[in-house]
Amino acid sequence: MSAASMISRRRAVLVPLTVSAAALAGCRWGPESASEQVASGATPPPRDADQQLVDRAVTAISDTAAVVSSAIGQRPRLRQGLAGFSTLHEAHLRHLGAPAGEPAPESRPAPTMAAVLTAERKLQDTLVDLAGQSGSGQLARSLASMAAGVAQHLALVLKVDQ
To answer: Percent of the chain, pLDDT > 90?
Structure first.
């Protein structure tokens, strides 16, 4: 079997599995949405430490998604290699109850593949760190699962580039 065929089979199996695992990791984390609280007449609870971790995770994922989006938008030849990251980031943001990010403005020079991979590694490290700080087992598992998804995509992209 050729190396290209093995990579294609691996991609065909890993990408859907990773996205599915991230999407099925559990229900949306956190309390009711603000609109649900208003409808029920409940007052919003005070922000706790885990919510601050969620906010930091959303910011880190959104920032990385913007780098990926900018690279894809300005360097179309990178689309195939980076599309899995875009899908993964959207799933992670939905899981955390955040809206998917807007495409990054293209006023800066387009990120190179190396810059995207560096941003993804930084995101993975951030998610691992946040998982370790979480007081909630459910949140810790979700963040660790997200970090693992990023690591799997990194491994796949690096394997394809070789």
So the answer is: 44
Dig out the tokens for 101 from the structure. Answer: 């990010």
Measured CA to CA, the distance from residue 21 to residue 12 in angstroms comes to 15
From the CA atom positions of the chain, what is the Rg in Å? 17
User: Which pTM was predicted?
Assistant: 0.68
**Alpha helix (H) residue ranges in 75-112:** 79-95
Q: 120-151, pLDDT tens digit by residue?
A: 999 999 999 999 999 989 999 999 999 999 99
Q: Using N-to-C axis directions, what is the helix angle for 49-74 and 113-133, rounded to 10°?
A: 170
What is the DSSP secondary-structure string of 10-76?
HHHHHHHHHHHHHHTSSSPPSS--HHHHHHHTPPPPPP-HHHHHHHHHHHHHHHHHHHHHHHHHH-G
Which 3 state secondary structure label does DSSP give 46? coil
